[in-house]
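Module 6 notes. Inverse folding takes a fixed backbone as the condition and produces residue identities as the prediction. Think of it as a translation problem where the source language is geometry and the target language is the twenty amino acids. Below is one complete input and output pair. Work through it position by position during the lab.
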């Protein structure tokens, strides 16, 4: 029994390490660019462009962590090739919207709008990011049309996984603010594993109800 537990733990650690290395490999330009950019709202559009590769890379990580028990590297590249285009159809509009949101919020004091409008903007942005997490997981693990993946992500938004994923994203944002994007990237495979774990009820329901 102890040998089995040790073997599984070793395999899990190996899988996380391989996925982490491949995550870093596929996002090096993004990490360099985001680290060099000043944290100013005016740089939000450029940051959004730089963050474009993060979607396919994170999707590949989710796929590899789910399907790459024996060969995580092979699973990562299979997930990257298969999911890059479907993920980008959701990821790029999200980045564009978040860039607009960041610019507006950064210039909020000069816009002359009431304070509650800023609170509403933040709430909508948070909801959009949590929806995107659901959509990313769904697109990474299942083959649906983009519109169907978006609808399923919205359908499962008011569930327990949303709260858990919010905690993961808050932790990631805290690490980024206190340290840097590079430090968060070093925890990328752990963050992906946490999102996957939190979404297990959603993925089980989708498999049972919406797939053959």
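Target side of the pair, the amino acids:
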């Amino acid at each position: 029994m102890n040998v089995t537990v040790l073997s599984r733990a070793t395999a899990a650690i190996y899988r996380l390490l391989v996925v982490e290395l491949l995550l870093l490999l596929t996002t090096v330009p993004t990490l360099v660019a985001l680290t060099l950019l000043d944290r100013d709202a005016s740089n939000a559009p450029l940051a959004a462009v730089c963050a474009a590769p993060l979607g396919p890379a994170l999707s590949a990580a989710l796929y590899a962590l789910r399907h790459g028990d024996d060969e995580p590297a092979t699973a990562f590249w299979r997930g990257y090739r298969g999911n890059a285009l479907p993920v980008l159809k959701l990821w790029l509009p999200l980045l564009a919207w978040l860039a607009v949101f960041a610019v507006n919020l950064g210039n909020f004091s000069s816009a002359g709008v009431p304070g509650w409008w800023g609170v509403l903007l933040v709430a909508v942005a948070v909801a959009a990011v949590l929806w995107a997490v659901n959509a990313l997981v769904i697109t990474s693990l299942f083959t649906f049309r983009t519109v169907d993946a978006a609808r399923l992500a919205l359908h499962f938004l008011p569930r327990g996984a949303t709260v858990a994923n919010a905690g993961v994203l808050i932790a990631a944002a805290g690490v980024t603010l206190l340290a840097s994007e590079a430090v968060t990237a070093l925890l990328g495979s752990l963050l992906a594993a946490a999102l996957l774990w939190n979404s297990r009820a959603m993925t089980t329901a989708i498999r049972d109800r919406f797939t053959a």
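Reference fact for the lab report: The chain is about 85% helix and 0% strand.
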